[in-house]
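Below is our example:
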Amino acid sequence: MTAISEALPPSSGDSQPEDRVAQQLSIPPEATVPLSVNSMPPIVTEPQPNSQHRAYRWNRTNYSKRRRTIDIWSFFLTFLSGSWLDGKQWSYLSGYTEAKQAARRRRQAIWIRDTFLELGPTFIKLGQLFSTRADLFPVEYVEELSKLQDRVPAFSYTQVEEIIERDLGKSIPALFANFDPMPLAAASLGQVHLATLFTGEEVVVKVQRPGLHKLFTIDLDILRGIAKYFQNHPKWGQNGRDWLGIYDECCKILWEETDYISEGQNADTFRRNFRLQDWVMVPRVYWRYSSTRTLTLEYLPGIKISSYEGIEAAGLDRQTIARQSATAYLQQLLTDGFFHADPHPGNVAIDPTTGALIFYDFGMMGRIAPGTKEKLMDTLLAIAGRNADRVVRGLVGLGAISAEADTDPIRRSVQYLLDNFLDKPIEGQSIAQITDDLYDIAYGQPFRFPATFTFVMRAFSTIEGVGKGLDPDFNFMAAAQPFAFQIVNSNGNSTPDANTFLAEIGRQAAQVGTSALGLPRRLEDTIDKLERGDIRVRVRSSETDRYLRRLAAMQQNTNYAILVATFTLSATMLFVTGYTTGAGVVGAIALISLVVWFRQLRKLDRQDRMS
């Protein structure tokens, strides 16, 4: 029996398992992925006195709810103050320009990213989720959050021993023939260790960070109050944004990621779905050595899929890998209805011997609900026909737009996108560009994209980017066409020709018939709503709106004039009575009010000249 390793780091002469694989195949060691769970960053050990790594206040097992409340609310109030100032043109020195606003937003986005790391695991995960929500936040925020690195100190080996013994009922020496006390990698939710079973099988053991459940409970309780505040905020709560719904969605995802039993079940389901494809590998779960906070999986090292030099050194075909990565994800989405929600390059590797795809990290998975594929297909057919009304109805059916929302501006935006999107053949389109255009339209509109939709779009963009890195001629849209034809022909058609067209004509005719039969009921429902007073009539007059805006601006100018007069008079009285310091402070406030008043007068004058 091999004794358990001592809690000492390996000597400089020792080679790690991933290094041995790299040496045998002449692959750079940094190109390998050494673990078969989530793509955690390189290990950051506990900070020493002379270490460059800082100690985070959240990196503990006990947390103060009062301290967390102060930290979190301080961040959000500072964020709201900066966001408010961002929209005030008078706050820009030497005048306002769009370039200055973008630069200020970029600085604030960097501050948000760094603060999320300071606030700990809950916010690191929220930042990663929000990095897909360009429909909610400005593009500068989304781009910076996508750079959020989950690099945090590891917790001690003593804590690892306590968690494993408490959850599995036995000590580490009784469970494993060998267990490396130095983690392979560490992240905000946990860390992984290389181990060997008594059967000789090499495994990786993923252990959850101590106190994580308590931290999530405290943070999410505070965030519910913030979500309620955002729901009623005049800026962030406009356009029907359902912040409480977004909060519930994030809670569900975060709690799922902390349940390692659920993650293991996801891995088993994923492996069963690809049991007929020998070019896909999924680590096996060892259930005897797993619990809600400990997950033991087969050790499957590989070459990182974005390490193009490593793939070349292994003698593998990059074009084949690009095609297989797209095929694998399209099968997950359109055939299985169960897909990997975070397929970034760290979560997909290549077997150096066979070239098979290796998938890691099954904590965040997406599911396509029954009937969604058909609704999605209806929307795609509407896009192909440039029918904006039908596209909007499809988006309502998919839950991307609220049924109560004003769809007129949405329809105009969708029509603009269709006119520009369909100028080129589908093979010439870029998923990333389509996603950016869609999010540009969605920002500021009453869209409410479900998490599944944003996960799919992010995964499409990631796979397209990796595919183009592997093969410059790779086109994701072209790779997706066979799957689209498969869905179109699911009723028995064998080729996407005239039969498909006739089937579509028949389907639309059936829809017309159904609509005609349902017309009396819909009229009756409308009359009932009129009688109950549930129908709202929205009337807009551009002339009236302009006069109302002018009236509001004049009222604001009057308020500023009163403020200037009041502060000037107060400063004069204080100066006469000998309170020079107070007079200086109040005089400065009067001067600031005067500058703001002058700017408002100029703005009103410009509006008068334009009208």
Notes: The longest strand covers residues 190-196. Residues 435 and 457 are 7 Å apart (CA to CA). The chain has a mean pLDDT of 76.
